[in-house]
Amino acid sequence: MITLEGFGKDYGDFTAVDSIDLQIEAGETFGFIGPNGAGKSTTIRFLATLLRASRGRGEVAGCDVMGDPVGVRQAIGYMPDNFGVYDGMRVWEFLDFFAVAYRIGKTERKNIIANVLELLDLGHKRDDFVNGLSRGMKQRLCLAKTLVHDPPVLILDEPASGLDPRARIEVKALLKELRKMGKTILISSHILTELADCCTSIGIIERGQLLMSGPISSVYRQIRRNRIIEIEFFANQDAGLSILRSCPALRSVEQEPEGRVIAELDGDDEVVASLMEQLIREGVRMRSFNDRDPTLEDVFMTVTKGLVT
Ligand SMILES: Nc1ncnc2c1ncn2[C@@H]1O[C@H](COP(=O)(O)OP(=O)(O)OP(=O)(O)O)[C@@H](O)[C@H]1O
Question: Which stretches make up the ABC transporter domain (predicted)?
Fold first, then answer.
């Protein structure tokens, strides 16, 4: 549904995005992750037909991004990172304005606006002035306007930035709802927990390079050889730490309060089992020994440290 082939963008001598190849299948919710200045908005603005590529090409819903920008605009709902709302307009007028821009007829517009307001839980704000809405409401309204022409693809640049935790949870729930409706969604964020439980695939970008992308389960599997072990020592912590430190597979070890230690190992199940066996054999007593599943944060830290080849 979304393809990038060797996409790159230079600003003068500065390369903001180097050469990205990316494939997002229909129905996916793709999390585009990267630190500030990584190149997320540049890539997104290209896909939204707002910026020309310096090299490479892209396709959205079968339309070439540079060859058929009108086709792309029909197929996408785009929410920029610094959206603006027009003053002196009521909520329904704001949505009507965009619906007219998409040449939707008057009767149809009325129904669409009612449906979109209901979906976004903004029905009670229908006649309020846009500039009087809270930040969270404005953000929701912006999301609403991406839906008026019922596009198959949504491109959302940091849709939850600046929102309080409750509003963020609501945005996540909404994304899940939109996925159920069959939308293909590209969402950027640098808040990993925000994306962890609502994305089906992710891409990690840093300094204009796409370091990794794919279905979330395969990304987790790829870093699985980087094991994170949490140990709570009960007695003989010093002996335990020295065993850990002499383990050839150890990458790092961090001591936390109350006898908790987090160790990162480069190894398979065999390595983890041997370590546990050795600790017990040497009389180290443990309250728990936990081989923790990686989180999206672990994936991000591992990938951006260049530990995955
Ligand atoms: N119009 C421009 N002219 C020059 N440099 C630019 C321009 N737009 C972006 N850049 C630079 O390109 C790089 C990538 O910027 P981009 O906005 O794509 O990053 P980002 O990953 O979206 O970051 P953020 O999370 O902070 O929005 C940055 O170093 C930025 O300063």
Answer: 2-232
